[in-house]
Amino acid sequence: MHNDLHSIKEAVREEADKALSLQDIQDLKVRYLGKKGLLTAKLKSLGSIPREQRPEYGSLLNETKKYIEALLDKQEGIFKSVELSKSLQSQQIDVTVPGCFTPWGHLHPITKVLDEIVGIFISLGFTVEEGPEVELDFYNFEALNFPKDHPARDMQDTFFISDDVVLRTHTSSVQVRTMEKNTPPLRVIAPGKVYRCDADVTHIPMFHQLEGFMVDKHIRMSDLKGVLQLFIHRVFGRETSVRFRPSFFPFTEPSAEIDISCVICKGSGCNVCKGTGWLEILGAGMINPRVYEMAGYNPDLYTGFAFGMGIERVAMLKYGIDDIRLFPENDKRFLEQF
Ligand code: FA5
Fold this sequence. Notes:
With 338 residues, the chain is an alpha+beta fold. The protein has helices at 2-18, 22-33, 38-44, 54-90, 109-123, 137-140, 173-181, 221-236, 289-295, 311-319, 326-329, 332-335; strands at 127-128, 134-136, 165-167, 186-195, 206-216, 242-249, 252-261, 278-287, 303-310.
C-alpha cells in the first residue's frame, strides 16, 4: 500500500515535469485531486482497510495529497506567470507612437449667426421667449389679423396639420402668446424654426426666424429705427446704410421692409443686389391695434413695434453665400469653412 502511494507521487512528478501548458497541470489536478480523482477515491475507500492499518495509511495518504497539491500549485504558478508575461508583452503600449487625430466639431453657421443676433438683443435688454412649432391657426394667423379666408394668408405657403393646426409659418406667432402671459412693458425676442411650402435658391421649407417686439406706453417708429440700425451696424459694420421701404403685414401698421446697402458692392450695384445697391433684410412695423385687442391689451394705452428676420438670409449676406440650400445639406466641405 505504501509503495502504491509512493508510485503515485512519482507518476505525478513525472507528468508535471512533462507538462507543456497551464491546461496540462489543471488536467492533472482533476485527475488526482478532483472529486473523481485517484487520491480522492483512495481517501473514500479508507474504511475498507483493516482497522489497525488505518491510522498510518490515512496519514500517509494525507501527506501524499499535500505533496501533490503543493507540487501542482507550484507548477501552476510557474505557467500562470509565463502566460501573464506573454500577454503583457503582446499588449505593450508604445507611448511614442503619435495618437489618432479626432477632428474637432464646431457650431453650425446658422447657430453661430443666431447666437450672435440673440446676444446683441440681450445686450439691449430683450428677453427670450419661445413658442411651439406645431401651432394653432389662431396664434399664427387669426390673432395677427389674418382672418380665415383672407387673401393675406396667401403671403405664406402653409403646411396645415388640420383646419385649426399648422406648422408655424413665422415666429410672429409668439407675439400674442407672450402678450397673453405678460403685461407691458415687453421687450422680447423669439428665435426658432418655421416652415413654409417653398423651395428654391433663396427659400427652403424649414428655416429660422427671429422675431422681436417691444410694447409700452409711447413707443414710436423712431424707437424701431434706432434698435434696428444699432443691430444692423453690429452685424454688418457701421459703414452699412439702412433704409425703410413701405410694405404690408396685416399685424403691423404702418409696415416696412428694411434694406441694407449691398454687402458685396457697398451700394454701387452688382448682380447680388440686382444693380439696385440694396438688399432686403427684414420685415417690421408698428404693432396693429387689432393685435392688442386679440391679446386683451388696451390699444389706446399701449403702442409698440415688431420686426422679423430670416436667419439664413442674414447668414447668406454676412458670409456671401448664394444658395440657401447649402445650410441644411450639411456637406462637411461647406461647413468646415466656418
Ligand atoms: C414674416 O414672416 C413676418 N412675420 C415678419 C415680420 C415680423 C413683419 C414682425 C413685421 C413685424 P416674411 O414672410 O417676409 O415676413 O419673412 C421674413 C423673412 O423670412 C424674409 O425676409 C426671409 O428672409 C425669410 N424667409 C421667408 N421665407 C423663407 C424661406 N422659405 N426660406 C428661407 N427664408 C425665408
